[in-house]
Amino acid sequence: MEKLVSDGLSRGSVVPETYIFPGEQRPNTVRTCESIPVVDLQGGSEDEVVREILKAGKEYGFFQVINHGIPEDLVNDMISVAQEFFEMPAENKACYYSEDPRKEPRLFTGQGYGKELSLYWRDCFIISAYPVAKFEHLFPEKPDNLKEIMSKFAPEAKGLAARLLRLISIGLGLEEDYLTGNRSGGPVKMVFNYYPRCPDPSLTLGLPKHCDPNLITLLLQGKVSGLQVLHDDRWVSVDPLPNAFVVNFGLLFEVVTNGLLKAVEHRAVTNHSLARTSIALPIRSADALLSKDNNPPLYGSFLFPEFFKIFATKKTDDKEIMMEDFRIKG
């Protein structure tokens, strides 16, 4: 098993050369007086909530949701047990480690998508989690309570995603179930990210600049800041809020809305004194997607596997290049 960042590298006093990014890609100054919008799902009528979601989506492509109905204890337990997983002895995790992206569940380190040659200061564990009955046999036996917590958390998170997609469909003037059902009805994966403390956060990144390929992503941040969003060509730090989920639109959502709601580039930075754990739930598409706007369509129809194959092989962080194969020419 290749050495995980969490299994020794983070205890050193220097960042290994293979994790050091070129100067132009390293973290720089961020806006500390600005934050992404916060949407209170119980903060008004349904129409008011819909307007807030669309406003946030158009301006930032990101927002945080509060008062979402998922119990705070369950949210905290999910983050805690995910961190406990990464902090187990190496021998307890070795059976999950693989360089094969088709393996599931899969633990890996330092790699991802993009053109960077530098390794990322991140360990990652990916597992299908919903429907629970279909995938619970894959859930790790250790930590002892991970299975139980995942079995409770996954349906709650899937329900929140469906609720948000319903509200967005209403806001776009579509049928309420337009973005649910077959369009987001595939299995839901959970992505556990672990960014150990870093000797020098100015030299490396947990994840470089990128856009997500899916419809939307729900992200549970934990209590340590690290997510940054590109807004007006400057990086904005997304500071965690208690019991909040970060929501962002992926490249497929940009296709669905014909560019009205855009996928926005973001990254993860490291921390000198604290480890950071986050849990992402990418909501994908199961069938072909076409814009229903009155505007001339910008993209043709395609299947998600076709899209993801190109996404995984493009080796670029340039969104325009990433999407060129799907745009309607002429």
UniProtKB/TrEMBL annotation:
InterPro entries noted in UniProt: DIOX_N (IPR026992), IPNS-like_FE2OG_OXY (IPR044861), IPNS-like_sf (IPR027443), Oxoglu/Fe-dep_dioxygenase_dom (IPR005123), Plant_2OG-oxidoreductases (IPR050295)
An example Gene Ontology molecular-function term: oxidoreductase activity
Gene3D superfamilies (UniProt xref): B-lactam Antibiotic, Isopenicillin N Synthase, Chain
Alphabetic keyword roster: Iron, Metal-binding, Oxidoreductase
Pfam family membership, one: 2OG-FeII_Oxy
Chain ranges of the Fe2OG dioxygenase domain: 186-285
PANTHER family the UniProt entry points to: OXOGLUTARATE/IRON-DEPENDENT DIOXYGENASE (PTHR47991)
Family: Belongs to the iron/ascorbate-dependent oxidoreductase family.
Name of the molecule in the record: Fe2OG dioxygenase domain-containing protein
